[in-house]
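FORM 7B - TANDEM STRUCTURE REPORT

SECTION 1: FIRST PROTEIN
SEQUENCE AND TOKENS:
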Amino acid sequence: MITSSRPRPKVMTGEKVFLSHVFAEDAPLLAQWFADLEFTTLLGQQGRSFTLEQEQQWITESTAAKDSERSFAIVLCANEQLIGTCNLRSIDLLHGTAELGIAIGDKTAWGQGYGREAVRLLVAYGFRYLNLYSIRLWVHGFNERARRAYMAAGFREAGRLRGATLFDGQRYDRILMEITRDDVR
């Protein structure tokens, strides 16, 4: 188990996880996760493996103050263990829209409901503090576990690009999902 050497501020808190800041010292753990081809494939980055330097650059860019993106660490409440990251990107404050991304890198945390809770916290953050109306995400047809988790968090299918993803010689749909402020009232 790897935890940060400094306390993590709790930006949004749930029962099992809280959203916090991503620290520069998180880069080695993120690089370990993003070097795993199974993990990156589930994120739609099939065949990609990322280096420590690339993760350091991502942290620098994603944590810079800008209106178009908010990135967070996903941390277990019980022991402050970092298990993943999530973000809202392509934030359009004029129209109240954004795209959600999430990555649970710690495989021992898969299937425990942590991602679903992190998604709910991130959606609540977007609606409450950014005054968003609609949050969307893309999921690949071969990632059924993620699709079910998004549906359990309140997302619904908004459309499909049929056969848009090629993986291991097979074509899969790319599925657009969304949640609106009206869905959570």
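SECTION 2: SECOND PROTEIN
SEQUENCE AND TOKENS:
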Amino acid sequence: MSGAEVEEQLRESGLRVTRQRVAVLTVLHDHPHTDTDTVIRQVREVAGDVSHQAVYDVLRALTEAGLVRRIQPTGSVARYEVRVGDNHHHVVCRSCAAIADVDCAVGEAPCLTPSDTHGYLIDQAEVTYWGLCPECAAAAAS
């Protein structure tokens, strides 16, 4: 995604365009499922000296604006992605912690129809699949 497209995305979400926001959002478009430390390193490569706190503040603002989704698989640090609003899920490698997107069931999404809603108005479900990525599975087999 180009810098102009990122800037437009920020404006459309009602956020002010800043160097830090553009850098963080660009990094997340280029590196899905990225943890905060990696975001900080990548942002500093493209935007110069940016504080940890500035990156945390930007991630929070982008998440609150709905431009970024925060995920945190059990036993893992928080990670961020720009694929939002489609109720997709994730598969996580137990060995190397790689994460990949998994689309929700085709057609009627059974994961959004719980056996008992307890009166809640359900609008999203999170499913995490666990296993070994192809590289780790191949290494384990040899």
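SECTION 3: OBSERVATIONS ON SECOND PROTEIN
The radius of gyration is 17 Å.
The mean pLDDT is 89.

SECTION 4: SIGNATURE
Preparer initials: ____
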